[in-house]
Amino acid sequence: MIRRNPVKSRLAAGKKCLGLWLVANSSMSAEIVAGTGVDFVIIDHEHGPGDLIGAAGQMQALRSGSIGGANDDGREPGGPAAILRVPWNDTPYIKRALDTGAEGIMVPYVETAAEAETAVRACKYPPAGNRGCAVSAIRATGFGHDSAEYWNRINDEVCTVLQIETRKGIDNIPEIAQVDGVDILFIGPTDTMATSGFNPTAPTAEALAVVESAEAAVKAAGKPMAAVPYGGRSAAQMFERGYDLVAAGSDLSLIRAGARAAMDAHRERWG
Ligand code: 3PY
Ligand code: MG
Q: What is the pLDDT of residue 64?
């Protein structure tokens, strides 16, 4: 069965979406995260060691719904939306990620409307796009059990997320946002600062202002806006700023933060 994309259905209902990153290529990380009832995950293949076999295992774990009491509050059944960030705007990789079962694709470093069109076309079967078709042989269709339903529905259900991470990309947001099939614009604060000549590990007011100019442009274009928290802001503060989706932390960063807090508390008391 092909379900309604949970991110699309929440956005259509005017709800905000909280997500987490999966960087460790671990199905157990995915299972833990899914058990929290988080709205979406981003399986990261731009950074980290992720591969498509790992992504398949993570997507199986996301759907298992076996821990944490998820799905008892009216959310789409089947766990968080699985969005896969591809390494680059690469049509063959996007095809393989979708075939593996990703419900959304996130493309880094999009700078022009032409690049946005390339990404959207890679995410859609003809005639809307140029995604290759092997519906009887792929995990996304239940290995052929759901071929017809998948073909009929996936062009509408797939979620295309484009990242804005450069000055050129910011300048072109009005045109990028108008490309049919672009669902969400995701500002990458770290790369935006880095590509604008700033040190992203110690953001100055000037560096933050560049990211804020991207926010203003996405808002003006009327597109759903996403990012990771930046400038010391919490996820809640990001939502207050007008974000529709926030990807708040990763399996790896949350382990680091938990381990750090436990050790700091121990050292403070016991030395
Ligand atoms: C960035 O900040 O550059 C991202 O890609 C999201 O973390
Ligand atoms: Mg980035």
A: 82
Ligand nearest to the CA of 194: 1
Indicate the SS3 state at residue 160.
Answer: strand
Instruction: State pTM to two decimals.
Output: 0.96
To which CATH superfamily is domain 6-270 assigned? Phosphoenolpyruvate-binding domains (3.20.20.60)
**Of 57, 59, 56, 79, the residue nearest 7 (C-alpha):** 79
Report domain extents, the chain.
Answer: 6-270
- The stretches of 72-146 forming alpha helices (DSSP H) are 91-100, 113-122
Q: Ligand 1, residue 163: give the atom nearest the CA.
A: 5
The band of 195, judged by pLDDT with boundaries at 50, 70 and 90, is very high
> What's the CA-to-centroid distance between 118 and ligand 2, angstroms?
19
Contacts of 180 (CB under 8 A, 6+ apart): 120
What is the rounded end-to-end Cα distance, in angstroms, of the chain? 56
Going by C-alpha positions, the residue among 162, 161, 163, 133 that lies closest to residue 148 is 133
| Atom number, ligand 1, closest to the C-alpha of residue 189 | 2
Q: What is the pLDDT of residues 122-157, one digit of tens each?
A: 999 999 999 999 999 999 999 999 999 999 999 999
Q: Cα–Cα distance between 159 and 162 in angstroms, integer?
A: 10
Question: pLDDT by residue (tens digit) across 161-186?
Answer: 999 999 999 999 999 999 999 999 99
- Please give all residues whose CB falls under 5 A of ion ligand 2, grouped by chain where several chains appear: 188, 191
DSSP for 184-229?
A: EEEE-HHHHHHHTT--TTS--HHHHHHHHHHHHHHHHHT--EEE--
